[in-house]
Amino acid sequence: MVAKRKKRQTTPRSKHRASWRGQLRFGLVSFEVQAVNAEIKENAEVHFHLLHAPDHQRIHFAKVCPKHGEVSNDEIVEGYEYTKGKYVEFDKEELDELHTQSERALTLDAFVSADEIDPIYFDGRMYYLVPSGSGSNEPYALLEAAMEHQEKWGIGQVVFSGRQQLALIRPVDGVLTMAMLNYDAEIRKPSEIKHEITRPATNPRQLRLAEQLIANWHEGRFDFSDYKDRYRQKVKEAIEAKKKGVPISAPEEEQPEVINLMDALKQSVEEAGSRRRGHRSRRHHHGRTAARKRAS
After folding, report:
1. Count of domains observed in the chain
2. Whether residue 166 has pLDDT greater than 90
3. Distance CA 170, CA 181 (A)
């Protein structure tokens, strides 16, 4: 009798390409996750290639040694210049071996309130963390729920893109997200810049108008989808025009009238008030329309 071979259990993976895979640890609890880039690259920018203008051929960049010409990747090592023209060399394996297994995991060792993290420390890279494997679902859900209930964010370190980096983990709509942070030593302090700023005494009337302007522009609920990348859309339209041989020209723009600070504040407050009244009127109209539809 031939024993049936057990089917090998495969780890389900996200349908999105993972930027990193590893363990997430908090206390003695650990589970596998993968990081998926939150940015939709194709919606972020229009990519251009460099071309040789005379013959329109694409430019290629080669890795060249000044003594031996173009070299292959297996002949390249990394070097740190400790004095002019003098290097200590490392291959990739040597640098990788400096990271311990515990450092490769995303280890949370502190939980903080949201207002404890100054946005200046965010470096702009954002990821969704997805549980990797059925055994990760329970601890993942537990950590997300606990952080949500406690209204806390987690801080930890992880080896990411070949170096140890600082990361912030927070729950968003039932999903754990990972934001990469700069270390404190990497951020220039305001005190280094403050001496370059001349700060005159604030006029009380101007201050009241500025505060009123801010109050008028304050939105009850901010919606990111209200903002669009208009330049990207213009670039795409220019590309389509070029494909059809249609010449493009810079859009005309009305130059703002130069007025003094007080008049500019007064006019801005008046315009903001008009805009706010318009928003209220539209919301009232939409509300009445929706009510009539429900009644019918």
Report:
1. 2
2. yes
3. 13
129 and 27 part of one domain = yes
Average confidence (pLDDT) over 180-196:
93
User: What are phi and psi for residue 19, nearest 5 degrees?
Assistant: -85, -20
Spatial contact of 153 and 170, defined as CB atoms under 8 Å apart: yes
Domain of 30, in residue numbers: 18-39+97-186
Per-residue pLDDT of 212-255, as tens digits, reads 888 888 877 778 788 787 878 888 888 888 888 888 887 787 77
Nearest Cα residue to 14 out of 127, 179, 170, 103:
127
CB atoms within 10 A of CB 170: 19
Backbone angles phi, psi at 131, to 5 degrees: -60, 140
Q: pTM (2 decimals)?
A: 0.71
The DSSP line for the chain is: -PPPPPPPPPPP--SSPEEEEEEEEETTEEEEEEEEESS-HHHH------EETTTTEEP----EETTTEE--GGG--EEEEEETTEEEEE-HHHHHTTS-HHHHSEEEEEEE-GGGS-GGGEEEEEEEEEE-SGGGHHHHHHHHHHHHHHT-EEEEEEEETTEEEEEEEEEETTEEEEEEE--GGGS--THHHHTT---PPPPHHHHHHHHHHHHHH--SS--GGG---HHHHHHHHHHHHHHTT----PPP-PPPP---HHHHHHHHHHHHHHHHHHHHHHHHHHHHHHHHHHH-
Measured on CA atoms in the order 255, 257, 261, 263, is the torsion positive or negative?
negative
Alpha carbon 43 to its chain centroid, in Å, reads 13
Average pLDDT over residues 186-212: 90
Say yes or no: 24 and 110 in one domain. Answer: yes
CATH number at residue 143: 2.40.290.10
